[in-house]
Amino acid sequence: MHLLSIEDLSDAQIATILDEGERWFAYNRQPRRNDRRLDGLTIVNAFFENSTRTLLSFEIAANRLGAQVVTMQVAHSSIKKGETLEDTARTLNAMRPDALVIRHAKSGAPHDISAIMDCPVVNAGDGIGEHPTQALLDAATIRQHFGRIGGLKIAICGDIKHSRVARSNAKLLGRLGADLRFVGPPSLMPPELGGGSIDAAVDGANVVMMLRVQRERLEDDLGDAPGEFLSRYGLTEARFAKAAPDAVIMHPGPINRGVEIEGPLADHAERSLIVRQVEMGVAVRMAVLDLLTATRRG
Ligand code: CP
Asked: What's the pLDDT tens digit per position in 196-207?
């Protein structure tokens, strides 16, 4: 079994990952952690795009469960000598890993690689495609905070067009019964995901999820003066005041402070779940690696 898209998961598997993610979250806060259920397995991380949260949390998740973890040094690999991604995958496969976690700038690259690999492949973000484990950790964080997802009003705001996080969350949070609103600058909105003003989207929302402006994927610079994006499309204190009284702020990170969100809102002690999302990321990735390698462990 691979995890390339939220669509690869059954409702029962999603429920298991969310339940187990919450359990691992509590486990990770214990001083002694001795569950070594992935002992004897080798997990390979191959990140062809930069990452802090996803790469480190997959490394920690696999290590914490007793696996051997190898992270490919892409900058020093034979990719730099012109080796194709497919030949790199054949090379990795010959080393018999038990799971491959891959991030790549090309949408669909993990799908192509999964056809070559004999082990489970996890999509850790592919271009503007999907980022399924980010959506799973977002769902687990929301459910842990509110005790439910169904019926919550969730505004997902910003650079929707380039966001694999938005695409995976549209599939997952929609399936779990959330009332989703997508909003961003017209040039950064895919028509199928709606539109409208950020003020309307945030009004009464229980969750306001801001997305990073992905300048590395923009064909044209937004051309905005400093602070203009924030005032027109970003999360300001005045805007957030219109959200529901119990509203929380989320962001997958990395954050562009002062661009899509005011810095103090990102750090808000009661309202921001951004650091909680990172903590949940390790827990949910433990649940994902456990699920995907279960058949290999017999
Ligand atoms: N949310 C996320 O994917 O962050 P990184 O790019 O740091 O992994």
From this structure: 899 999 999 999
Nearest CA to ligand 1 atom 1: 252
CATH of the domain at 91: 3.40.50.1370
Q: Is the pLDDT of residue 298 over 90?
A: no
Domain that holds residue 12: 6-130+279-297
Question: If you measure from the C-alpha of residue 55 to the centroid of ligand 1, how many angstroms do you get, rounded to a whole number?
Answer: 8
Asked if residue 258 is part of any domain, the answer here is yes
How far away, in angstroms, is 252 Cα from ligand 1 center?
7
- Expressed in angstroms and rounded, the spacing between residue 253 Cα and the centre of ligand 1 is 6
Residue 229 pLDDT level (bands cut at 50, 70, 90): confident
Number of domains in the chain: 2
Domain assignment present for residue 53? The answer is: yes
Query: Would 1 be classed as within a structural domain?
Result: no
On whether both 106 and 148 belong to a single domain, the answer is no
Q: Which residues line ligand 1 (CB under 6 A)?
A: 51-54, 125, 134, 252-254
Question: Does an H or E element contain 278, and which?
Answer: helix 274-293
Do 195 and 138 lie in one domain? The reply is: yes
Atom index in ligand 1 nearest the CA of residue 134 equals 1
- Model-level pTM? 0.96
